Amino acid sequence: MLAIEVKGLYFYYTKDEYVLKDITLEIEEGESVAIMGSNGAGKTTLIKHFNGLLKPVKGYVKVLGRDTRKHTVAELSRLIGIVFQNPDHQLFAETVEKEVEFALRNFNFPESEIKKRTAKILKYFGLGKYREVSPFNLSEGEKKRLTIASVLVYEPEIVVLDEPTIGQDAIQRKRIIEVLKELIKSGKTIIAVTHDVEFATELFKRVVVLSKGRLIADGDIKDVLTNREVLEAANLLPSQVTECAWLLKDLGFPENIITVEELEEHIIKVI
Amino acid sequence: MSHTRIAILRGFEFREKNTIIHRLDPRAKAIYTIVMSIITLMFTTPLPLLIIFLASFIVVLLAKVVKEWASTMKCIIILSLFIFVVNYLMAPTDKLNYAISMTMRLITLTSVFSIFFLTTSPEDFSLALLKLGVPYEYTLIFTMALRFIPTLARDLQMIIDAQRSRGLELEKGNVIQRVKKFLPILVPLVVYEIKRSFMVAEALEARAFGAIETRTYFYEIKMKPLDWILSTLLIMLLTLIVFLYLTNMLPK
User: What's the number of domains chain A is made of?
Assistant: First the structure.
């Protein structure tokens, strides 16, 4: 079954100002996809359609076969967990533990299961020692991890993250990448909205690019993120690895190198 | 959801337009608003109130803000009905007339104030307050409050979206359960806005806010002949009506 099926999606907030135009997109179960594009391209608007927060003006969105127009946000959120960008927009509970329990209680998990899962996820995210601490007293990196934990705890089939690496220092960023790597390996469908080219290349095989509300590229990350036109339309810079390969073009380096390993391989070949 | 809730505020949101009303000095417009409000509160019969209301509608037409004005008026329909019912039940005699008058008062006052805010930019308004002797710090608070209404609405929407994505169902449950469900929305909103206000304060200080006692202004407002004429006429009208009121010559 398709994890997400978007067909001919159009959307506007105010009439005639389309934010999304004719988006068609299929994401298989177990796939990991990065959604990229410049500010205001419609990325967040698109993911808000995935759990029915926004409903299409035209076209449809199906999540694991369920049409988002026919299900409530709560029903859909049980299947697809979305972690929004800013932790300040969602942290509210008295303690870190209660914050994580929030979704479980909303979805009517039994009490024993709530305790078990909360303890496990807090440990996994290195937040165990903050169980009784107010979420507002955590550092920015910890807050971010807490928001991710509070979604992963109910084990949705699909996980969507909006700009997970923004404002994170190198260590926090690495931690988030590790968690996501493991999730991808375990077969979960992972979708991330990001500006971070290096982050995308490290985790995702497929990338979808939006520009001015239209889907302008969808394919293998190796091809999309080394395509000059696409990068320019999306206000993205190529990764340093790609840039390096482009500079060494005269030595016979191919243009579509994105990983350090590939670059290394070619350098050794040339030497 | 929040889009409908803030609709009433849209009726007070200023948009730049070049009409005769927009060009008036904010002080002249303030005099109009104050005079009309006082007159409105002096009458308790429907007919004069209706006349004031229709007069305000002419101003709305001149200012070309019918749509924005209508959206404010739409928002007070429920409140108007409430006021009508309560006054009808409470009135000692002549129930219908009294209830209609009280409702007309609310509608007319809303209309008059809406005109002021729809046609006066926050900058003009704070300049007018300054000329009336209000300290700059206070006028700034007012301008910033207006400026942050759309920001607040956007934050609220993002918080609602985030919590609904975590399974929060605002529309389910009995009254007590529903009230409790607003906590996950109110807590982040209050915390976030307090945080934001500290950031704004720091940004202001970083730009040397309050460094010198007497500020100068880039924009100045000036009463033009038309402003003087209108203000004079309005004050004459007010004097006349107050005179009639005090001599009991006004229809009660």
Answer: 2
